[in-house]
Write a structure and sequence with these properties.
With 691 residues, the chain is an alpha+beta fold. Helices cover 23% and strands 22% of the residues. Strand 11 and strand 12 form a beta hairpin. Helix 5 packs across helix 6 and helix 13 packs across helix 14.
Length: 691
């Protein structure tokens, strides 16, 4: 068996990178179409589109705490809800509902879905009298609270901005109607003969310019407004959402963005093959059922070449694609007494409502102030202002400076490199339920196995999105020591797993947890520690970076690093790669059911485990205490090692080890609220070593 494995390693060492390094390869598309029949996949992006390029398009940020009111419709109206509904057919005189825009290579879905729904609602609530395209360019470039322009934004901030500042008219790239057209040209979604450029390069957000493209139009006169007190969150109840759409028009919603969604061509989508790239904002315009599969009907912002002429259907019952943060609002109708025409080009007249001239003056003054405002410091999610606010609004944990104040969202996203598979293939391990009575209130693997130093070891992934590899090899190292009764103390190499596991994902751009454990069984992983470490076969290539400990000489954690090459030899010529291999035991890698008692029994019986959590921006600022999301947005998923549990000041927690070095958190460790569903443990993995 060992000879076969060694031969396999020789072959792998000479192999070219697998086609699966590209998540939209022909192989992936063919596999999707062979595995299910509710939807069809096809070529929408270049075959060599990278993970980073896909992530750039999924620009919807989720807030841990909602501030807008939730609108509730009369439940007695549920009997009026039809089996199917399509806003395009309901409001035939509103062409914006049928309009599909193109965000190009900018992560501006949050802005496009918002202005598209706003345009629809202006038409619907003016009874078809006012047909205006609200400008994505204006919202994208001028909404400072949106956070990061082309690198993503907050949905609720867009709707608040419409009320407080107004958004001018403006359509697609090159459009001459309206005030501010979109700056970025449409990109190629692989329709034969298309002359559009490939959707490859993430763009910086355009500058906020408070003037129209044409000198014939006045910025002030082109403003549209949301009605004060009339923007809201819609309940995640299906009936409530349907009532909102059929009563007031399309809404904006965020969905979890799986990599296979980019290949959607037709049918009712549900995740089949891929990983989560982030969250994506879309416009929902209706619902129905196709071949027995209930769906939501949506409009995307990838041009009419994508999907069903730009539209899509998404499974209404699949929890993996449930709707997050559904927002909407009503337009402001302005009317000056005694005047039978509009007060401005797109301020819609509601003849049953009279607004004073004073209101218009106030709005115009607000716009003058906004024109000269400096950028909000909140564009940086780890600013001193944010850290101080975190510490002022809760007491279970303390935030502090772990990264530079000007660290951008994109730099933080890189570190959250855990991909979640929609379908698990490893067996699920279930412990004997009768053992639950043996679970202690408190457990710390460092104390349980004091002769295993790897459990106390904190590594540093530096600026590489290798958390998936670090958490895995760290748990593997612990289990080798534990199951050998402390006779074998070895650091399993993150470098070897990161660089050589082709099926694990995309190296420094992120990877899957499950294949890492399979790779340990099938190929083995050599020994190797941190950067500069001379013990073991393959040390990590990247130097630790500065987490703002005073006097630190480490470089800032800023630069995104390329994945190191797979080299099947040790750093030192005195060591043999083959002899340094460690293996997982065949048929002994598994997932642990997401039940608290089962996870505890696994840890106390077999040792630390690897898991992933939703990565909120404020987690990067963690210093001590029991963490729970307080301020920030979800930037992806992060892989960690769980080594125990306990309770602190009445707050139950999981005890974890991170891979941001010992400058971060409690000497590299952290406690995380065990009952907060926002940071539940996702896909818990482990295995036993081959000794």
């Amino acid at each position: 068996m060992k000879i076969i494995l060694c031969l396999a390693l020789v072959v792998v060492s000479q192999a070219l990178p697998s086609a699966e390094v590209y998540p939209l390869s022909d192989e992936v598309i063919n596999k999707i179409n062979s595995m299910q029949s509710t939807w069809t996949a096809g070529r929408n992006f270049p075959v060599n589109t990278t993970v980073d390029q896909l992530r750039a398009l999924a620009g919807a940020f989720l807030k841990p705490v909602q501030t807008l009111p939730t609108k509730m419709h009369d439940v007695s109206l549920e009997d009026t809800i039809p089996e199917s509904f399509d806003a395009r057919e309901q409001w035939l005189d509103c062409p914006s509902i049928r309009d599909i825009r193109d965000q190009a290579s900018c992560g501006s879905c949050w802005a496009f879905a918002a202005v598209s729904a706003m345009s629809d609602r202006i038409c619907i609530h003016s009874k078809g009298e006012k047909k205006v395209k609200v400008s994505a360019e204006d919202l994208l470039s001028c909404c400072e609270d949106g956070r990061d322009g082309c690198f993503g934004g907050l949905l609720d901030a867009a709707w608040n901005y419409w009320v407080e500042n107004g958004i001018v008219s403006g359509g697609d790239y090159g459009g001459t109607e309206g005030c501010r057209a979109y700056s970025f040209a449409p990109c190629n979604h692989h329709i034969e003969g298309s002359e559009k450029p490939d959707c490859e390069i993430p763009f910086e957000a355009p500058a906020c310019v408070k003037q129209c493209d044409s000198s014939k139009l006045t910025y002030k006169d082109e403003l549209t407004f949301g009605k004060k007190g009339s923007i809201y969150l819609i309940s995640s109840d299906e009936a409530q959402l349907k009532l909102e759409i059929m009563t007031n028009g399309p809404v904006e919603a965020a969905i979890t963005m799986y990599s296979d969604f980019y290949t959607y061509k037709s049918g009712v989508y549900q995740p089949i093959d891929g990983f989560i790239t982030g969250f994506h904002a879309v416009k929902l315009i209706g619902w129905g059922e196709e071949n027995g599969t209930p769906y939501w009907l949506g409009a995307n912002s990838f041009s009419t070449e994508w999907g069903e002429d730009g539209f899509f259907k998404i499974n209404r019952e699949d929890k993996r694609t449930r709707l997050f943060e559904v927002y909407a609002g009503l337009p402001e109708f302005l009317f000056i007494k005694g005047v039978g025409t509009q007060t401005s080009r797109h301020h819609i007249i509601d003849k049953g409502t009279k607004k004073s001239v004073n209101m218009k003056i106030i709005l115009c003054l607000a716009l003058v102030v906004a024109t000269y405002a400096l950028p909000s410091p909140n564009i940086y999610p780890l600013s001193d202002e944010v850290i101080n606010r975190i510490n002022s609004i809760q007491s279970t944990w303390t935030a502090g400076r772990n990264f530079p104040a000007n660290t951008t969202i994109d730099q933080l996203r890189v570190l959250a490199g855990a991909f979640i598979r929609p379908v698990q293939t490893l067996p699920t391990k279930i412990h004997d339920l009768s053992l639950e009575d043996t679970i202690p209130e408190y457990f710390d693997a460092r104390e349980q196995w004091p002769d295993c130093p790897s459990i106390r070891d904190i590594r540093d992934q530096a600026s590489c999105g290798a958390c998936w590899a670090f958490a895995a090899v760290s748990a593997m190292s612990d289990r080798i020591c534990i199951h050998s009764k402390s006779e074998k103390k070895v650091k399993v190499s993150a470098e070897d797993l990161l660089s050589c596991c082709e099926n694990c994902g995309y190296g420094c751009d992120g990877g899957y947890l499950e294949p890492a454990w399979n790779y340990w069984v099938e190929n083995g992983i050599v020994s190797g520690g941190e950067y500069g470490d001379t013990e073991g076969c393959r040390a990590y290539s990247f130097a630790p970076c500065n987490h703002y400990v005073e006097g630190s000489e480490k470089p800032d954690c800023e630069t995104v690093t390329e994945t190191p090459a797979c080299v099947k030899q040790c750093d030192s010529s005195s060591l043999s790669y083959k002899n340094e291999l460690t293996f997982g035991k065949k048929d002994s890698v598994y997932t642990i059911i997401s039940n608290e008692s089962q996870i505890k029994l696994e840890i106390m019986t077999n040792g630390p485990v690897e898991t992933s959590i939703a990565m909120y921006a404020d987690f990067y600022a963690y210093k001590s205490g029991v963490y729970q999301p307080t301020e920030g947005i979800i930037l992806g998923h992060h892989a960690i090692k769980i080594i125990g549990w306990g309770e602190e000041n009445g707050n139950p927690y999981w005890l974890g080890a991170n891979s941001f070095n010992t400058d971060w958190g409690e000497d590299g460790f952290f406690k995380m609220n065990r009952e907060d569903k926002r940071i539940r443990l996702i896909s818990v993995y482990a295995g036993l070593p081959e000794l």
